[in-house]
What does this fold into?
Amino acid sequence: MRSYLHSVPRSIGAGHDAADPNEETHPMPMIQVRYVTPAPRPELRGAIAALAARLGRECLSKDPGVTAVLVEPADPQGWFVAGRRPAVEDGKAAFWLDIKITAGTNTKGETAAFVRAAFDGMAALLGPLHEESYVLVHAVDGDAYGYGGRTQNARWAAANPG
It folds into this structure.
């Protein structure tokens, strides 16, 4: 039987101790990526999804077996930065990557490494990027986040009775 919990020991500073339910949690992210390119490139969707899941595993120790990724190309006419359309007027791609993880499962260094790797990886896939391409890592409380009808903290409690 496959284990749905994964130990993620972290030393992330004051306030975290062995009784913290976020110290052992199933690392499952939801990742959303919107992107715009100067010319339509629908073949990018699979490559972007694979990149996001791989970086979640490599940088944040997230389980790719339960990582959900939604990739959506955006209309270049509707993507604006400082009043300009980067794909239309500047010939640059842009993206917004939003990942939701359980709070307390990653250090600041791991999160920073994910943000850098995501920007670099997207530049490699999309070509020249507008500087205002964003990565947002939502570290969500384990009582407010879950899948399959159970919160992350409920999963932890079931695996750690008493």
Summary: The beta strands are 30-36, 68-73, 94-102, 134-140, 146-147, 150-151. Confidence is low (pLDDT under 50) at residues 1-26. The first helix runs from residue 44 to 60.
